[in-house]
Design brief:
Elements: E1 11-21, H1 29-32, E2 43-56, E3 59-60, E4 65-72, E5 81-88, H2 93-104, H3 114-117, E6 118-127, E7 129-134, E8 137-142, E9 146-152, E10 163-164, E11 175-187, E12 190-193, E13 198-207
Parallel strand pairs: 5-6
Antiparallel strand pairs: 1-2, 1-13, 2-3, 2-4, 4-5, 7-8, 8-9, 9-11, 10-11, 11-12, 11-13
Length: about 210
């Protein structure tokens, strides 16, 4: 892993982040900005990130996927996160290093708060991170380690999913509510099943501070 002391870098990522967590109902972290306890008292989650456009210090990141395993013991805002990162095995060496710096917070900018929230990087590896975006479905497969599928919640207007807009959440202002369909994590001693649990989707537009 890169040094997790923050060293601002020139980077940007546009795309989509989606996740499935252990909360029974829609994640209270979004509106409380991490101050409210997750519904189960802890937060276990996986995250999938699709990079449609992006760069790190001149290295192209477009088309790459990243998966995260996240284990938070209490309120999201209180930190002590344990995180494992799975970086697309198609990434160049420079792109791999850059993505680890972005998602560890070491590159500063939007994700810089991770240097304070993440207490331990339990693993970082190259992996075939398969992500499918199909209408109201989002799917992630990382070998047999993470196999998740979520579906967006239909709103009063059937073609518009339930959405929280204009939030101050770190991921982005507009969070689409979803639920886990079939969702299993089997890695780093974690054996989780998020079927029927809370999920969300967010368009991301993050950048570095340099």
């Amino acid at each position: 892993m890169p040094n997790r002391e923050m060293t601002p870098a020139d980077w940007a990522v546009k795309g989509e982040l989606f996740l499935n967590c252990s909360c029974d109902v829609f994640c209270p972290c979004v509106v409380s900005l991490g101050a409210h306890l997750p519904t189960e008292g802890h937060c276990h989650a996986w995250m999938g990130i699709v990079i449609d456009e992006g760069h790190f210090e001149g290295e192209d990141l477009a088309g790459l996927n990243v998966g995260l395993l996240v284990d938070i013991p209490g309120r999201m805002g209180e930190g002590n996160w344990k995180v494992a990162a799975y970086v697309d095995d198609r990434a160049s060496e420079a792109a791999y290093d850059g993505l680890l710096k972005i998602f560890s917070g070491a590159a500063g900018g939007t994700t810089g708060l991770f240097t304070m929230l993440v207490s331990e990087i339990i693993g970082a590896e190259r992996a075939p991170v398969e992500i499918i975006r199909d209408g109201n479905r989002r799917v992630i497969n990382i070998g047999r380690k993470i196999n998740g599928e979520i579906e967006l919640l239909a709103g009063a207007e059937p073609d518009q999913p339930v959405t929280i807009t204009n939030s101050k959440y770190w991921m982005g202002p507009n969070i689409v509510a979803a639920r886990g369909v079939k969702s299993k994590v089997r890695d780093y001693g974690r054996v989780w099943d998020f079927g029927g649990k809370s999920a969300e989707v967010c368009a991301i537009d993050w950048q570095g501070a340099a």
